[in-house]
Write a structure and sequence with these properties.
The protein contains 1 helix and 7 strands. The protein is mainly beta and 141 residues long. The strands form 2 sheets. Strands 1-2-7-4-5 form a 5-stranded antiparallel β-sheet, with helices on one face. Strand 4 and strand 5 form a beta hairpin.
Length: 141
């Protein structure tokens, strides 16, 4: 599945409306990170992109994983893309914040959080059983 997060301290992704009401931020983008899942008989799921603009100076902290090591595939599947956390300053410069860091954001700065894609399952050169049946990905558990 695309855009699924696991091992996130038993939390779900915070709704945009809740985040923007509670914090001085604006969500610029929330989308799937296309083709970030690893190839395989069953491709790994795509990660997400969340770009958050800071509406006033804030202290920002991030604690994330799979930024250096890509999520591995299984049974011949290939690894998904590693995640990346990018700071975009109000002046337009960008730099990689890293996996675990803090940052003193200024008004107009933004963070772009690109989560990793999942690893694929099975060799990519084998046809998917779904393609040769009437089943869909949702039918397979």
């Amino acid at each position: 599945s695309h855009g699924v997060h696991t091992h996130m301290t038993n939390t779900r992704i915070t709704d945009v409306e809740v985040m923007e009401r509670r914090y001085p931020v604006l969500l610029r983008q929330f989308s799937l990170r296309k083709n970030s899942g690893g190839p395989g008989t069953f491709n790994g799921g795509d990660g997400v992109i969340r770009e958050i603009e800071f509406l006033r100076p804030l202290s920002v902290g991030i604690l994330s994983e799979r930024r250096s090591y890509r999520p591995y595939g299984l049974h011949g599947g290939e690894s998904g893309q590693a995640g990346v956390n990018i700071i975009v300053t109000a002046a337009g410069s960008t730099w990689n914040l890293g996996a675990k860091n803090t940052y003193q954001a200024q008004k107009g700065d933004a963070i772009q959080i690109c989560t990793p894609g999942g690893g694929g399952w099975g060799p990519a050169h084998l046809p998917s059983p779904i393609a040769s049946s009437s089943a869909t990905e949702e039918d397979i558990v």
